[in-house]
Amino acid sequence: MNAFDSVWILLNVFSSQYTYGNFGGILVLPFAKGVTHSFVLLVVSTVMMIAILYASRRGRVPKIRKIAAIDAIDEAVGRATEMGRPVHFTPGIGDFYGYDAPMTIAGISVLGYAARKVAEYNTPLIVTFAAPEVEPVITDVVRQAYLAAGRPEAFDPEGIRYVSGRQFAYTSAVVGILHREKVAANLMIGYFAGESMIIAEAGFLGGAIQVGGTANTYQIPFFVVACDHVLISEELYAAGAYLSKDPVQLAAIAGQDWVRLIAAALTIVGALLATFGIPLIADFFKM
Amino acid sequence: MKLKLPLAITTILVLLEVADYYFQVPIINSIAKDVTVAILVMSACAIGLGIISLTKIHVSRITKKKPHSLESVIMLVTLAAFILVGAVLGSGDPSYVYMFQNIIVPLDSTMFSIAGFFMASAAYRAFRARSNEALALLIAAVLVMIGQAPIGETMWSGFPSICQWILDVPNTAGVRALIMGIAIGMLSLTIRMLMGHERGYLGAGA
Question: Is A112–B200 a contact, with Cβ atoms under 8 angstroms apart?
């Protein structure tokens, strides 16, 4: 038994296994085994991010670097406007539950911005997706964007297209739309799997300027080779905050960077300690 | 209210799912399980929504005699055939299975196989050594390809080891850094959502 086993036992000491109780006025919840380290990190990260977020409310707004792929959205919409051709946006094949939900939500946040730009420039917009449950949200986001741009009459509900729930039926529909409707700007930001390469290459062959973004690590390389601009890794999740220009949200991004520094430090120190036969941090991650 | 209600529902459900993951409390675990089932039921209902939307768009195309309306007719006929056979005879019926195996499966396979050709064309563009980074990518890719192919080992027994080292060390290190960033980014997005700051998904006016 090591020190971290003792901590885990301590966390559960007042409760019999799989039960919970009130001991001395303190509610004790039994931890599932093997996730205690993750809970500790979650609490520390959350507290740090919230602290930096609140500090920004007192006027301490941190600077964050420019995200080229996000800035490229304006360029892409501008190019489509000049060419008189439509902009295509897809949040991919994700829905609102499971691993892909945050990517879909991040993609839809970017859609709000892109739709507003499209509305301002009076350019046609086509939005395709594979999960029917995202349709009401996407329709509302695009309608609100047109309203915010002062052009509610320009909103075309036929541009919002659920094409299929099957991955490759969705892919063939999107490839068809890119070719038939001569899309000038192809924005793919959300959750993508095996279809990423096919859609991105179809966009390239059609001559569209392309911005890709996903947090699915298997698909990032495909976007890197086929797109003009790519949101890599956490940039996808930072996109909404970056576009909002809201100081509080920008502060959350800075908080995220601090947490990443801690994670990197833990990795380096853990590797060094393990090299010298001290498995302290390795044991913590087994808790 | 239009804004506060979705935010409140999001917050409650996120906290419930987090508690379900970390704690073994029967009541929390049971509610979380029920919520998951409810979400699955709602998603199944959403398929109906999708069918209505799809039908509306394609019927409108046909009635307005827009270009490519023949494809819309084919789509609607196929949709109706699958719904009819599936609903009347059931999805386990040989005729439904026949339709599925002989229409959907080959079409899926065809689309997926296109990825192989697109990968080759994209790799050709990416591997042109126009900068130091592209040169490093080209060398690593060539070594991995040779190391993975049987001919590599025949040429020189060291190729598979070099390939494995590239995959295990620099590649794994890079991917882990990405995964770490993604996890932290996901947490930051969730905190912003729970605190009501990230509202892009609620509409531009939210």
Answer: yes
Residue A6's pLDDT band (cuts 50, 70, 90)? low
Identify how many contiguous H helices and E strands chain A contains and give both numbers.
Answer: 11, 8
Q: Which residue has the tokens 């060390």?
A: B169
Structure-token match 């960033």, residue found: B181
Is the CB of A233 less than 8 angstroms away from the CB of B182? yes
Per DSSP, B23 falls in state B
Write out the two tokens for A80: 């489509």
Nearest residue of chain A to residue B59 (CA atoms): A158
Q: Nearest C-alpha of chain A: how many angstroms from B151?
A: 26
* Rounded distance between C-alpha atoms, residue A93 and residue A105, angstroms: 12
Where residue A17 falls among pLDDT bands split at 50, 70, 90? very low
Any bridge partners for residue A230, and if so which? Answer: A212
Which of B133, B201, B202 would best serve as a mutation to test chain A binding (most A beta carbons within 10 A)? B201
Helix, strand, coil percentages for chain A (3-state, nearest 5): 60, 15, 30
Structure tokens at A39: 């809970």
Reduce the secondary structure of A9-69 to three states and give it as a string: HHHHCCCCCCCCEEECCEEECCECCCCHHHHHHHHHHHHHHHHHHHHHHCCCCCCCCCCHH
**From residue A97, how far is each of B40, B146, B164 by CA, in Å?**
9, 40, 36
Long-range contacts of A214-221 (CB under 8 A, 24+ apart): A214/A92, A214/A103, A214/A188, A214/A189, A214/A190, A215/A102, A215/A103, A215/A106, A215/A191, A215/B182, A215/B185, A215/B186, A216/A103, A216/A191, A216/A192, A217/B175, A217/B178, A217/B179, A217/B182, A218/A193, A219/A192, A219/A193, A220/B178
* Chain A residues close to B193, C-beta within 8 Å: 105
Closest residue to B185, CB basis, from A195, A220, A234: A234
Residue A1 pLDDT more than 80?
no
Q: How do residues A65-80 score in pLDDT, each as one tens digit?
A: 888 999 999 999 999 9
Architecture of domain A68-244: 3-Layer(aba) Sandwich (3.40)
> What is the pTM assigned to this prediction?
0.86
Residues in chain B closer than 8 A to A253 (CB atoms): 188
Q: Which of B46, B123, B187 sits opposite A133 (nearest CB)?
A: B46
Q: Where in chain A do CATH 3.40.50 domains reside?
A: 68-244
